[in-house]
Design brief:
The chain is α/β, with parallel strands linked by helices. The chain has one domain (about 20-160): Rossmann fold (3-Layer(aba) Sandwich), CATH 3.40.50. Helix content is about 25%, strand content about 30%. The chain contains four helices and nine strands, in the order αβαβαβββαββββ. It has helices at about 5-10, 20-40, 55-60, 115-125, and strands spanning about 15-20, 45-50, 70-80, 90-95, 105-110, 130-140, 150-155, 160-165, 180. It has a six-stranded mixed β-sheet. Strands 1-9-8 form a three-stranded antiparallel β-sheet, covered by helices on one side. α2 (about 20-40) crosses α3. The longest helix is centred in the N-terminal third of the chain and has 18 residues, at about 20-40. The protein is globular. The chain starts with a helix and ends with a strand. The model has no long low-confidence stretch (mean pLDDT about 95). The chain binds guanosine-5'-monophosphate. Guanosine-5'-monophosphate (5GP) binds next to β5, α4 and β8. Guanosine-5'-monophosphate (5GP) binds near residues 85, 111, 115, 161 and 162.
Amino acid sequence: MTFDDQEYLSRYPFIEKVLISSEDITRRVRQLGNDISNDYKDSTPIFVCILKGAYPFLADLTRCVSIEHEVDFMAVSSYGGGTQSSGVVKIEKDLKANITDRDIILVEDIIDTGLTIDNLIALLKVRNPRSIRVAAFVDKKIARKVDVPLHYTGFEIPNEFVIGYGLDYDEKYRNLPFIGVMKA
Ligand code: 5GP
């Protein structure tokens, strides 16, 4: 844990603990950047940031890749009503890029049930990209309802509600440099 992490903890007493420290995040994102750079040596992939939560991960990850690439942004929301996410996604903000015949890396903050990313992949496949892979910062594997292939995963976490590094509580705390758990 860095001094910064510690300072945030004393400033925000509602945070129970740091689950993934900013130091661990830096180290892991660098490794993922290396892996992606090796895998896409002969390609210029498009990193697609799924807004809002994936913005810190996208910014850090793309600064750790040594290959040429493009970035684009997409925002989706689940619809269907009810308290549980149906996973059926509605595009709130679409890509600018034409993804036909391109290699796509979907950059996600967290995969929980997997329903959102599963539906998003189905939706993008219709546009005939050459390939689609998923880079997820955290994986709550235990909460999964559909099987989704995650090619690059930062960390696997238990089934707890987490905040920080892009993840919000009521639109706040996305700026925290670590992943934390809130007090119940
Ligand atoms: P899924 O369709 O995989 O269940 O939902 C993924 C979305 O649920 C994420 O993009 C995120 O917005 C939200 N989500 C799931 N778990 C958490 C969590 O622990 N913390 C926060 N802040 N959001 C979460």
